[in-house]
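Let's practice the habit of predicting before peeking. Look at the sequence and jot down your guess about where helices and strands might fall. Then scroll down.
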Amino acid sequence: MIDHRHHFDDQAAEWDNDPKKIERARRTAQLIVDTVQPQGNGRVFEFGAGTGLVSQFLAPYVGQLTLADNSHGMREVIAGKIDAGVLDGAELSDSDLVGGKLPDEKYDLVVASLVLHHVANVPALLTSFASILASGGVACIIELDDAGGKFHAHIDHYDAHDGFKRDEFEQSLRDAGFAEVQFHDVGKIEREDGEYSLFLANAFTS
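Done guessing? Here is the structure:
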């Protein structure tokens, strides 16, 4: 992963104070529930979980939650939520899906919300997603539509992805071993410099 962890370390303590982030996480979780209809005992792995907001909203609809994030600050917030019972029974994982350090367990659902545009080697990560999913599992990936370089223009020397073209992203998912891909519109991120549309890609294993 391109190392933006210090940026997120600095933001972690205040992350959940932004109502827009909370509402986006709620809507994201609800769209996943509506489109995938997870079983109540499904095992979920959230990659790049941040403070665990999406998992919090998914919790009533799934079983065991496992969260991973490479930001120390975000992991501290997640650990605090687990201790406080906000993420009751959830586990914090040390797995590194980008580096190939995969968990032994298989999951029914892998969730990644606005994370992949920070990852240099997206194809390798998608292959890791496919490999940790059980048969019939689904990867639910929320990402930016291609923004033509605008979304991260305010960040000096930004060297990751500025969103994705849906047809190219679907091909990457199929190349990683997924059998079917469905796209759903997730709304927009509104900023002073414009609106940026988001998609949910549900990628199904065979």
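How did you do? The longest helix spans residues 19-36.
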